[in-house]
């Protein structure tokens, strides 16, 4: 049953993103920003962690979880170290994902001839 909910919830998040692009005529960049900010807002209200517990990978894999990680790290470090922790917490939590994106993008550019 856990796999079914992950598939349904993850698919629903993807459907929302696709509808934003097709019906709302948003660009992929705008759509990504909307989903990241939505994940951040939901985590700001403390609702994203229960959502991940319910949906598992369906909530932790889509781009909304990046917004969740940003806010979660900022709030955690704010309580631990004070106002400076807002900035350091964001980078502490998301640095592995950002680094992986940069490294794999570079490796893909070595293999595939970029256009433009």
Give the topology.
Blueprint: H1 2-22, H2 28-44, H3 48-55, H4 57-60, H5 64-81, H6 85-111
Helix pairs in contact: 1-2, 2-5, 5-6
Can you offer a commentary on this structure?
This protein is mostly helical. Helices cover 82% and strands 0% of the residues. It has six helices and no strands. The protein has helices at 2-22, 28-44, 48-55, 57-60, 64-81, 85-111. The longest helix is centred in the last third of the chain and has 27 residues, at 85-111.
Given as residue ranges, the uncertain stretches (5+ residues, pLDDT < 50) are: none
Radius of gyration: 16 Å
Average residue pLDDT? 91
Order of helices and strands: HHHHHH
Shape estimate: globular
Strand content: under 5%
The helicity comes to over 70%
Q: What is the number of E strands? A: 0
Structural class: mainly alpha
Largest sheet: none
Number of discrete helical segments: 6
Alpha-carbon distance between the two ends: 45 Å
